[in-house]
UniProtKB/TrEMBL annotation, chain A:
Residues 29-270 form the ABC transporter domain. It comes from the Bacteria. Keywords: Antibiotic resistance, ATP-binding, Nucleotide-binding, Transport. This is ATP-binding cassette domain-containing protein. Pfam families: ABC_tran. It is a peripheral membrane protein. It is found in: Cell membrane.
Amino acid sequence: MNTPQQITPDQHAPEPSEPLEPALELSGLRRDYVVRAPVPGSRRRRRQVVRAVDDISLSIRPGEAVGFVGANGAGKSTTIKMMTGILTPTGGSLRVLGREPVAERKQLAREIGVVFGQRSQLWWDLPLRDSYTILGAMHRLTDRQRDARLERLVDGLDLGAFLGRPVRQLSLGQRMRGEVAAALLHSPQLVVLDEPTIGLDMVSKEGLRRFLREDRAERGTTLFLTTHDMNDVERLCDRIVVVNSGTVAYDGPLDSFRAHLGAPRELVVDLAEPAAALSLPGSAETAAVEADGIRHRIRFSGAELTVPALLSAIGAQVEVRDLSLTEPAIEDLVREIYGRSGLA
Amino acid sequence: MPTYWSIASASFRQYSTYRMATAAGVFTNTIFGFIRASILFAAITTAGGELSGYTIAQAATYVWLGQALLAPIEAFGTREVSQRVHQGEVAVDLLRPASFLGLYYAQKLGRSAFLLLGRGIPPLVIGALVTGLALPEDPLSYLLGAFSLLAAITLAFLADMMVNLAAFWLIETRGLTVVYTAVMNLLSGFLIPILWFPDWLLGIARATPFPSMIQTPIDTLSGRITPLEALPLLGVQAGWVLVLAVAAHLMLRLGVRSMEVQGG
């Protein structure tokens, strides 16, 4: 696990790979945008080609849950637009559920569910319930099928209280739950979530994640998720793909992503009595001692050491009065990836 | 089909909840109806009781039907689609497993059905009570009038959609909307009957789909022309529906293509 780049899915497949067609297959995918930039001192504009996606190859098996992360402008949205068939690739090829996205956009729309965190697919002025009636008809669900599925969604996403309210009156959290229900109403095989938790508070985020996990466990859907929140990836995905400047900087299982980075989780303990550096198990190390020996910052890797084990080792030496645990932010981890591959 | 029906009926219900807006619209339509009627009456009286085939009663009918059709036809244009194109929301529409134009047409029909009842009928009733209306004697006129009205709403939808779809290429379509509605209001025979135009302008108007949007349904519904005279005009309407439907479809295809290729 010392070579981080381009771990192919087959190498880390949790079970023997089945002869299934990939749910998503991107090979050598490229996308250029032509930008007309003004030239200083001239009225002419210079034609400039910006490469948003540069040679992305990915193969995602049915049932996999993949977190697709990267900084703003890394090429995430462009990739999703190509996957859903609203943007033509400049080069390379992609198949989504065996289909050509641009050519078969409408058929594909019946088989995938998409949530764009920044856009709404609900009918703004209509009561939320009406959007599901329309979507049910669009996806050719019988009233029975629709009602059964809707009941599950209303229950799991807690929509009951505001089903009758016009979408424009919903809070962001309520609307996002409504959006997710809209994307899942037709029980799609592939769910594409583009920043589904953006702008939500902790409780709303957690509720949404819980339901997405449940639904995936029940139906075995393939999940493709972009986010800025590492917790989304951790709670929902088993594989992480990091993109930077339009290329794949890392592709592998989530736990080895962490392990590979040494994933410094940080435990902050406040002691009852000041103490010098503590002796710590495994690879845990004291990063800093503050407040005259009262506060200790301890870095450790989550993969090889559990928090209780670490705590009991500390507890055997000193009395702990207070503690807090911080998880590495996705931005930090990604930055580290970039740093290592010399891309920063 | 259930998709479009559910959208049309939802759109109808949605507009039926805007009671204040409806009341305000009816009020405005009625006031402008009186203003327009008094101008036309003055012109007709000066001309000696009849002007290019319009008597006072026929002019009144023309005005009130025009006021009634204003809202369902949406003669002042819409901006929803152009805004969605500019904001990229159009991607969401294109990711629906249904026809883009079909979705918006269904929405338009639901909306127009409500506007016809809620905004159209009241000014007509008020007009009938105050100035009187010249109504057709032949019941066939009502049937043909209904078809003519549907065709007019469809045409107005398609033309307005094309103006909106220009947003795929233009950064700002407001100017285009203003020009379009000005031309449409004049050439459709909404401001004054097209028969009052000088010959050259009448010629221009008849070469466009605009009279099919207002003048034809008004003439048919008011019985100013007989059902037999209305039939060829309905044929003209049908022809324009075909032409504009193909044009709007092509425009959408090109717009979507340029979005797919250039990025939204």
